[in-house]
């Protein structure tokens, strides 16, 4: 079972992929779909970092 840091780290290349699809697509519907996906996944990622990763990391300091 992957740890939280592995999961968070895995998100970063996905963000780059979504961003590339947004800026390189000429299809407005596809751009909107990936903008929404990017926003949703970034929010999910940020919440996970704030609620789980950062508090656990602070305990180690």
From TrEMBL:
<protein>
    <recommendedName>
        <fullName>Hemerythrin-like domain-containing protein</fullName>
    </recommendedName>
</protein>
